[in-house]
Amino acid sequence: MTIRFAVAGFDHWYNALPALEQLLQDDEAEVVAIAHNDPEQAAYIASRYGIDCGTIYSSVIGRDDVDVVCVFNST
Q1: Phi/psi of residue 34, nearest 5 degrees
Q2: How far apart are the C-alpha atoms of 60 and 62, rounded to whole Å?
Q3: pLDDT tens across 42-71, in order?
Q4: Using alpha carbons only, how large is the chain's radius of gyration in Å?
């Protein structure tokens, strides 16, 4: 069974990026959405991992195709 993840926020990048990398390597996990509120950093994350990274947290948190949301934002 595949568990579908979303990642909201990369303020705590020292935890968020390793967690994202582990999820991307796990055969039983699928990262379906990520978001970070800083557009420049969102663009960097999207280009580094090849995943579209939006800037609005609610757009990934409220998705029907997400089973687990990992939150790494400060506020």
Answers
A1: -140, 155
A2: 6
A3: 999 999 999 989 999 999 998 999 999 999
A4: 11
pLDDT tens sequence across 22-45: 999 999 999 999 999 999 999 999
Contacts of 33 (CB under 8 A, 6+ apart): 6, 7, 54, 59, 60, 63, 66
- Burial readout 43-70 (b: 16 or more C-beta within 10 A, e: otherwise): eebeeebeeebbeebeebeeeeebeebb
Closest CA to 5 of 29, 36, 28: 29
Contact 68, 7 (CB under 8 A): no
Q: Which residues pair with 54 in a beta bridge?
A: 35
Q: Cα(73)–Cα(7) distance, rounded to whole angstroms?
A: 10
Q: Give pTM, 2 decimals.
A: 0.90
Q: Are 5 and 67 in contact (CB under 8 A)?
A: yes
